[in-house]
Amino acid sequence: MSKAIEILQAALQRAMAGRPKVGGFPYLAETLRRAGVTRNLWYLPACQSLFLTEHGPVVSLGTPLVTETTDVPRFDREALISALRTDQAGRSTFPEFLSASWRAGVVRYDVDFAARTCTYFGANGEEYVESYPAADLG
Fold first, then answer.
1. What would you report as the CA-atom Rg of the chain, rounded to the nearest whole angstrom?
2. What residue spans define the domains of the chain?
């Protein structure tokens, strides 16, 4: 196992152990940033996550949201914002958030840990950018 994987896995474990139910993403993001993760690129519906770290890139594969050739939903900014607010309020799991984002037409998103932004992209170049607050890790 590489140093990048070891550091990433340890940071993810720390983040999940201390993450509050409401507002958990900023806590997770700050934990990863402090561990040297600079970006996290998610590709939906494959649920492939690419972590760019100071120790090298690491890819993680999740359970795909679709398993056959499928039409991509049209980008729906309001549905995406609704999915974000539901997640931020602690009323969805991460897999539920990913599914809701996909149904809102998100094909990928990019988390920039230095800028504290998430940019969500549709298949036809649509995008929605949201900033998130700094988190106190205590």
1. 15
2. 3-125
The CATH superfamily assigned to 3-125 is YdfO-like (3.30.1810.10)
* Average pLDDT across the chain, whole number: 94
pLDDT in tens, 8-51: 999 999 988 877 777 788 889 999 999 999 999 999 999 999 99
If DSSP codes are grouped into helix, strand and coil, which group holds residue 8?
helix
Contacts 24+ apart (CB under 8 A), 20-26: 20/90, 21/90, 22/88, 22/89, 22/90, 23/88, 23/90, 23/135, 24/90, 25/87, 25/88, 25/132, 26/116, 26/132, 26/133, 26/134, 26/135
CA distance 41 to 60: 10
Q: Give the C-alpha separation, 32 to 11, whole Å.
A: 6
The pTM assigned to this predicted structure is: 0.93
3-state secondary structure of 94: helix
CA dist., res. 81 & res. 101, Å (int): 9
